[in-house]
Amino acid sequence: MSAFSDKLQAGDFVVSSEIGPPKGVHVEHCLDDAEHMRDRVTAINVTDIQSAVMRVGSLAICHLLTHRGIEPILQMVCRDRNQLALQSDLLSAVALGVENVLCLTGDHNVLGDHKESMPVFDLDSVGLLETVQILMGGHDLAGNELEGEPPTFFPGAVVTPAGDPLEPQLIKMEKKVNAGARFFQTQAVYDSAQFHEFMKQAETFGAPVLLGIVVLKNAGMANYMNKFVAGVSVPQELIDELKADPEKTKSGQTGVEIAARTIRECKDCCQGVHIMPLGWDDKVPAILDLAGL
After folding, report:
1. Strand 183-188 to strand 209-214: parallel, antiparallel, or no bridges (unpaired)?
2. Which residue, among 157, 167, 164, 173, has the nearest Cα to 231 in the 3D structure?
3. Which of 18, 55, 61, 118 is the right S-S partner for 45, CB 3.0 to 4.6 Å?
4. pLDDT by residue (tens digit) across 96-121?
5. What pLDDT score does 36 carry?
6. How many angstroms separate the CA atoms of 248 and 255, rounded?
7. How many Cα atoms within 13 Å fall on the side-chain side of residue 229?
8. What is the pTM of this model?
9. pLDDT under 50 in the chain at which residues?
10. pLDDT at 229
11. Are 174 and 205 in contact (CB under 8 A)?
């Protein structure tokens, strides 16, 4: 098994982060982003055509990370593939040495840069988790037996602690656990008290939860997330903090301090943190230092 799965199953506090593949074949910068975090995180997510904007595939970048000795987490969305392609890509991942997979439904095509493209959604995230379990049982979705040893995966899913109302999120989380999710990474969290309340209810499911942190770059970004990103709520006091010292915010220090403070306030009730730096990968070590990790 992987270091990521071993640590989570041992109850260790785990740090993960993520990178986004480029819109083109020059992948060196993307891989260099991962190098900034090599010694500070256990595994790195690779986003899968994030926000429905066409990019290099997640699996290709995951494979390149394994060659650099960096453990990847393959993000897989259901938007672009039918059952055949999803199963094929899952088997391909294991063949390339990638076992961690984050199962996502995916943003709709209308949000991306190919609005005329045809959405698939043959499965959703729960169906994809169930597919992973069936493949690990040695069969495909049609009941056909797989050749050789069954593949091994460490499947995970996402949850939104700031969902309003919260109950549907908890219901979906339980469905994902029952479908085989072994860990959860959360949508961005900015309200520590709200996260603690969520964890009081979510801990009954028994799955490790990694606190999701998106590093805030400026007040405009925070306002945009409040308006357009479902399940994310940036409190006004944080927006005011981002506005207070423009130079400090521009340098990234304010975003680093907010991220580290949130981690310090929440790390006692979860089993890890997942940092989404959105291009500020070089700031991940500073966040972890300030958070005491």
Report:
1. parallel
2. 164
3. 18
4. 999 999 999 977 778 877 888 888 88
5. 87
6. 9
7. 16
8. 0.94
9. none
10. 85
11. yes
Q: How far is it, in rounded angstroms, from Cα 136 to Cα 23?
A: 33
**Cis upstream peptide for 22 (omega within 30°):** no
Q: Name the token pair of 48.
A: 């899968």
Confidence (pLDDT) at 1: 52
- Amino acid 215 reads V
CB neighbour burial string for 148-171, b if at least 16 within 10 angstroms, e if fewer? eeebebbbbbbbbbbbeebeebbe
Which tens digit of pLDDT belongs to each residue from 120-131? 889 999 999 999
Which pLDDT belongs to residue 110?
80
Residue with tokens 């990474």: 185
Neighbouring residues of 92: CB distance < 8 A, sequence distance ≥ 6: 59
Task: Give the pair of three-digit tokens for residue 257.
Answer: 């301090």
Count of residues in the chain? 293
Let me know: does 141 contact 170? Beta carbons within 8 Å. no
Options 3.30.1780.10, 3.20.20.220, 1.10.10.10, 2.40.50.140; CATH of 3-286 = 3.20.20.220
Dist CA 204 CA 114 (whole Å) = 41
Please report, for residues 20, 192, 263, the alpha-carbon distance to residue 266 in angstroms, rounded to integers and kept in the order given: 26, 6, 5
Strand 72-77 relative to strand 43-46: parallel, antiparallel, unpaired? parallel
